Each structure stands twice: as C-alpha cells, then as structure tokens.
User: Fold these one by one.
Assistant:
Number 1:
Amino acid sequence: MRRLMLLRHAKTESHAPSGRDQDRRLDDRGRSDAAEIGGWIGRHPPFPDSVLVSHAIRARQTWEIAWEAMKDRVPRPQVELLPELYGADPSHLLQTIREASAADPRRLMLVGHNPGMHELALALAGSGDAAGRKRLADNLPTSGLAVFDFEIGDWADVAFRRGRLVLFVSPKLLKQTSGD
C-alpha cells in the first residue's frame, strides 16, 4: 500500500515585486492557512516519508510553514525541491510520482500548483470518500489537501482512477466543521 498526499500551496499575493509568477509569496491568510493545515497533518498520521516541493516561492513557503507547525509530532521527511512541478500537467505529475519508486517512500507528499494538482486529484480518484470527492470536484483550493491510498507495492504502478480518496480537507472546511 502507498499513500499520496497532494497539498496545494497556500494563498498568495497577487503580484510579486519582481513581476515573475514563481516569485509570488504567501499573504497573511496564506501563512495562517499553511500553519493550520500543517498542524492538522501533524495530528493525523500517517505522515509523509518524502515530500516533493515546487521550486516556486509560494510552494516552498507553504511547506516550510506547514512543517514548522507539525515538526514536533512528525518524523522529518526527505524533502526535495523540483522545478518541474511548477506548471506541471497531470501526466507529468503522475510521471514524477512514479519516479518516486527509486527512493521507495511509503507515503509521498507533493506541494504544488493548480490547475495540475486539481486535475491530477480528479484523475486519480477512482473510489473512496464520496463527500470528499464531491467537494474536490469543484476545486483543490489553496492549502487544500487530498489524500489517496493505492493498493500497490511500487510507485511505478500508480495510475489514473486507481486511487482511493481517503480524505479531502482545507482550512475552510476545517473552520466549517469546527475541528478535526
């Protein structure tokens, strides 16, 4: 069994001072939401063994803030910055996941961007949490987390429609349910 966690970066400023999209930083809400989702992850094992993070500033900040909120409860995962996650489509993201078989983590997290992350989540969800799948159909919002289990022994075997959505959560959903 393998677990995949897809985390979209948190809310950002509209424009970076440099004018480059990759340089956009988290705004106040984004920093708060990243900490909230990180704290939630830290209270809900199992935790990622390996984390692949887009090189964009907003994705790195999301991971750093989330990690800070969870690090006292979670073993330190292997973290790798991957420029190819920025702007990646679902097929490219799937290939990146399949290549994780070299390091063979049991639980893998990607921190990246829409539309690719949302489209990937929709393409992977073959079964699982019906209410979560319905909410996820609309959007993978900023700081949104989609968790999938795959009945496979190797990441190379991950395929579209083969994932079971375990849960879909976001800071907004956490506020609506007033807790975990």
Number 2:
Amino acid sequence: MDRTGRYTIVDECNNHGTVMLREYPRNETLYVVEYDDPDVEEMLSSLDAGTVVEIDLRRAGRRGNAWCAESVQPVELL
C-alpha cells in the first residue's frame, strides 16, 4: 500500500534514521525507517519538528507502521 499526503514532523530524525510523522491535519502517526535515496533521507533529516511536508510513502517490508520515503517536499502553510 502506498500513501501520498501531508504530514507534520513530530520527532526529528534520530540516530537510527527514523522520523516520526503525524498525518496532517489528522492524528495518525507513522514512522519513516527507510529512504529511496540519500537525497530524500538528507532532506527529511534536515527538517525540524513541526514542519509540514508533502511526502510519498510505501510500506517498509512487513513491518506494521514502518514506511519508506520515496520523495519529500516541505509545505508552506498560509
């Protein structure tokens, strides 16, 4: 299952490369644990908690709530 949408960064990237996201504006929480390429990982890792991003995700293997980020772009809210 793939997902695309807006998410708020709840916890910045930790030393294991995991970022916690909350679906914007709802409250479902997801964990990004893998990245399609180093540029996506670098972008997501450089953003602060509270930043809203447009992100394409796909399941990371069989792990329940773990996701792989395919693309990411910060969103400016009005």
